[in-house]
């Protein structure tokens, strides 16, 4: 990937994080840590790799995306709004009781959302269903999903993984957002899913491991997944929870806690400084 394009994507990712943080500030609520760790992955998918059209969000030939870690709506909604699926100003209503932008993604209310989420662990099964439909209908669309590394402690994930490997769903690409933290601490302290790569390999998946904040690595892994035949691909993305804001990074407190007014101010200053450094 050319350096200029890397810089453009980095600038978009900073804007996604800032827009997501504005929504959290307006709502006084929202999961910032995991939203920020997955922001670079969503940026590459939605601005570089996925076949989507904001003017036709239900196009039957579009690529699909399932946010299985469905509480990370700030980044998901910010991405969709900035990509043109709905007005950015609507993010001011995030999590309001009368808003269509609830705390978990909802496919019946939000343009661009392909699967609703609530209880974790279910998104991979839905993504597999979409991929199977693509095979049966002889469609060329691809299905992407993002799982949390804490989420993969759920048993349903591994039943689904076994099915995807069994059916050789090479039109399915899954990201594991491996930031190593969940609400109660490190994933190792709570219920270690390691070694993640070996588990997916055992279920006949093509496995790639990348730096989840390196745009070139993210894009290259997506391309390699497209080239893989006869097996689904999982991309284990090593990430930093709260990426982009110094006091949030690797801080489990910000899994779901709302920053103070002073912390919001500092976070916006840091993101603005990053944006200024990326101006082309």
Category from helices, strands and their pairing: alpha/beta
Unreliable stretches covering 5 or more consecutive residues: none
Distance between the termini: 17 Å
Strand content: 5-15%
Helix content: 40-55%
Q: What is the count of helical runs?
A: 10
Across the major sheet, the strand order is 1-2-3-7-6
Calculate Rg over CA atoms. Answer: 18 Å
Beta-strand segment tally: 7
How would you spell out the order of helices and strands? HHHEHHEHEEEHHEHEH
Task: Write out key terms for the chains shown.
two-stranded antiparallel sheet, 280 residues, 5-stranded parallel β-sheet, single chain, alpha/beta, globular
Describe the structure in your own words.
With 280 residues, the chain is an alpha/beta fold. The chain is 43% helix and 12% strand. The protein has helices spanning 3-27, 32-37, 39-49, 73-83, 123-136, 155-166, 187-191, 196-202, 215-227, 261-277; strands at 64-67, 143-148, 172-178, 181-182, 185-186, 206-211, 233-238. Strands 1-2-3-7-6 form a five-stranded parallel beta sheet, with helices on both faces. Strands 4-5 form a two-stranded antiparallel ribbon. Helix 1 crosses helix 4 and helix 5 packs parallel to helix 6 (155-166). The model has no long low-confidence stretch (mean pLDDT 97).
């Amino acid at each position: 990937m050319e350096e200029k394009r890397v810089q453009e994507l980095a600038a978009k990712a900073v804007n996604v994080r800032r827009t997501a943080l504005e929504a959290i500030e307006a709502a006084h609520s929202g999961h910032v840590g995991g939203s920020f760790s997955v922001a670079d992955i969503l940026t590459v998918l939605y601005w570089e790799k996925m076949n989507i059209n904001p003017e036709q969000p239900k196009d039957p030939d579009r690529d699909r995306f399932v946010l299985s870690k469905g509480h990370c709506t700030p980044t998901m909604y910010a991405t969709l709004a900035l990509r043109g699926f709905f007005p950015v100003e609507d993010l001011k209503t995030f999590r309001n009781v009368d808003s269509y932008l609830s705390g978990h993604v909802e496919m019946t209310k939000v343009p661009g959302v392909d699967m609703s989420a609530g209880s974790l662990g279910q998104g991979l099964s839905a993504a597999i269903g979409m991929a199977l439909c693509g095979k049966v209908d002889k469609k060329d669309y691809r299905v992407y999903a993002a799982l949390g590394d804490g989420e993969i402690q759920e048993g349903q994930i591994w039943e689904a993984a076994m099915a995807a490997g069994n059916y050789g769903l090479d039109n399915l690409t899954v990201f594991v957002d491996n930031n190593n933290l969940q609400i109660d601490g490190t994933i190792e302290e709570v219920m270690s899913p390691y070694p993640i790569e070996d588990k997916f390999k055992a279920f006949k998946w093509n496995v790639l491991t990348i730096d989840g904040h390196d745009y070139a690595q993210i894009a290259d892994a997506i391309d390699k997944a497209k080239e893989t035949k006869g097996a689904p691909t999982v991309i284990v993305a090593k990430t930093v929870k709260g990426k982009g804001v110094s006091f949030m990074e690797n801080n489990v407190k910000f899994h779901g806690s709302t920053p103070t007014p002073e912390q919001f101010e500092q976070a916006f200053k840091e993101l603005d400084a990053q944006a200024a450094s990326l101006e082309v």
